[in-house]
Structures are given as structure tokens and as C-alpha cells.
Amino acid sequence: MATCQKSIFQDLSPSLDYSVNPYAKVLASNRGELSLPLAFGSDLKGKAGQWRSYFEQSGLHGSSPRKLILEIGCHKGKTINQMASNHPDLAFVGMDITFKRVVLSARLAVQSQNNNVCAVLGDARQIDQIFAAEELDGIVAFFPDPWLKKRSQANKKLFNDDFLVTLSQRLKPHGQFWFKTDAEAYFAELKSSASKAGLVQVDRSQGMLTGDYETTFEAMFKNQNLPTFEALWTKF
Ligand SMILES: C[S@@+](CC[C@H](N)C(=O)[O-])C[C@H]1O[C@@H](n2cnc3c(N)ncnc32)[C@H](O)[C@@H]1O
After folding, report:
1. Average of pLDDT values for 214-220?
2. Pocket around ligand 1 at a 6 A CB cut-off
3. Sign of CA dihedral 19, 23, 24, 27
4. What CATH code is carried by the domain that includes residue 184?
5. What 3-state class would DSSP assign to 183?
6. Is residue 16 part of a domain?
7. Which of 108, 136, 204, 232 has the smallest number of CB atoms closer than 10 Å to its CB?
8. What is the domain extent for residue 107?
């Protein structure tokens, strides 16, 4: 079940029936504790510009992380936790819109003993409210919902010209944006949007994250012999 928050700072409704979604109950009962590294609703107030100190002061990371990376659509946390394991000196925020995926991502961080991951419940359309300009070193978005099946869904696409400007603004100079998709038309549009937003495509070998990170959806497409597309951009 996707979150129906209008604002990213909105807490879970007291009328929410936890028996319908047990993951919402986990979110609510975890409040204020670090048994699971997750944040949502009012936890996110004041985080913009403060993520590095949050990782340091909450005891999550213990020291100020060298770089801060955001994954949009972290699903059940497979990729973000692999990245976090490979890069213990960096901090990773994984964002998704369902209670279940955020809880599972945070649980996987605990199982993987990653103290450099925080799972965030929220719609990425509101990232400018929780990240300050030039706060992020990297943004990763792998296989976002393409919303291309019906013409009426086309305007739901997340990665359009305006959103790429927002992403570019959140990145520091020399920050990087890494994108993968199975939708060739979406990829072509994204390349155009990235260029308009001042991002310059670079070779993958210049990526700040080592590893290829085959995601859950990527594996599914590859098993079906379907093509996938990826590119890396840098903000100069
Ligand atoms: C097709 S799945 C891809 C998951 C994963 N990245 C992978 O490659 O296996 C898209 C993911 O994006 C999440 N998502 C969709 N719209 C979103 C939004 N507006 N903000 C944040 N996450 C979103 C979905 O819940 C889902 O987990």
C-alpha cells in the first residue's frame, strides 16, 4: 500500500487500521528509536541540510560520512544495502513510498550490519523539502515506474524536466546521478531532461560508487532477455 501522505512531514493518521497494514504498525512503534534505521513524517522536519550530522549524532554512522547518497525507489533495500556494505565510509538514504518497502529496507540494513543506511518514507517529488541545495553527493534511481502503459499515465512520470532540475539542485558540484531503466523512450526523455538541467553524461568508469548493483527489477528484465539502459551524469 502506497503512503497517502499529502505532505512528506505528515505523520501516520491515528485512524489508520494497523491490522490492514502491519508494516505501518512497525513504522509507528519504531518511533524515536534506532532499533530500525528509518524516518518518516515529523522525523523529517529540520533534516534538510542536516543529514550528515544526523548520521553522526544519531549514532547511525558514528562519524560524519564522507559522502551522502540518496536512492529514489529503494524497494526492499537490496541495492542500497549492497552499496552501503561496499562503502562503509559513505551514508545512504533510501526513499520509497510504501510502508512495507521502507520497513524491509531498514530491516535489511540491520541484518547486513549497515550503520550507514536510513530508510525514508516519502514521495520523491518532495525531496526538495528534506534535502538542502547541494547537500547530496550522489543520487541513484534504478528502474523507476515508467508509467508509459497508457497515455493517461504519462504525466505521472517522476523523472521529467522539472524533477531533473530539482535533482541537479540537490547535488553538490561534481555530484553524480546514476539512472537505469528498461523503458527506452523514458531513457531518451531523461537524457534530454538531464542535459537541460545542466548535468553532463560521463562514462560509468567515473562513478563514485564501485560495483554494478544488479537490482531486483534488472534481474527480472535480464531473465526475460529484455534490454536495459543506464547512464551516469555529473554536475560540473
Ligand atoms: C519498479 S520498482 C524498482 C525497484 C528497484 N529500484 C529495482 O530496480 O529493483 C520502483 C520503486 O519505486 C518506488 N516508487 C514509485 N514512485 C515513487 C516515488 N514517487 N517516490 C519514491 N519511490 C517511488 C516504488 O514503490 C518501487 O519500490
Report:
1. 97
2. 72-73, 75, 95-98, 101, 123-125, 142-145, 158, 215-218
3. positive
4. 3.40.50.150
5. coil
6. no
7. 204
8. 22-235
Q: What is the pLDDT of residues 133-166, one digit of tens each?
A: 999 999 999 999 976 666 666 667 899 999 999 9
Position 37: which residue type? P
Q: What is the pLDDT of residue 150?
A: 62
Number of compact structural domains in the chain? 1
Residue 228 identity: T
By three-state DSSP, how is residue 144 classified?
A: coil
**pLDDT number for residue 71:** 98
Q: Report if residue 9 sits inside a domain.
A: no
Tell me how far the alpha carbon of residue 217 lies from the centroid of ligand 1, in angstroms: 10
* Cell output for 24: 505501518
Does the pTM exceed 0.90? Answer: yes
* Catalytic residue chosen out of the listed positions 11, 123, 128, 145: 145
Spacing, Cα 75 to ligand 1 middle (Å): 6
* Strand spans (E) along the chain: 38-39, 68-72, 91-96, 117-121, 136-142, 171-181, 199-202, 229-235
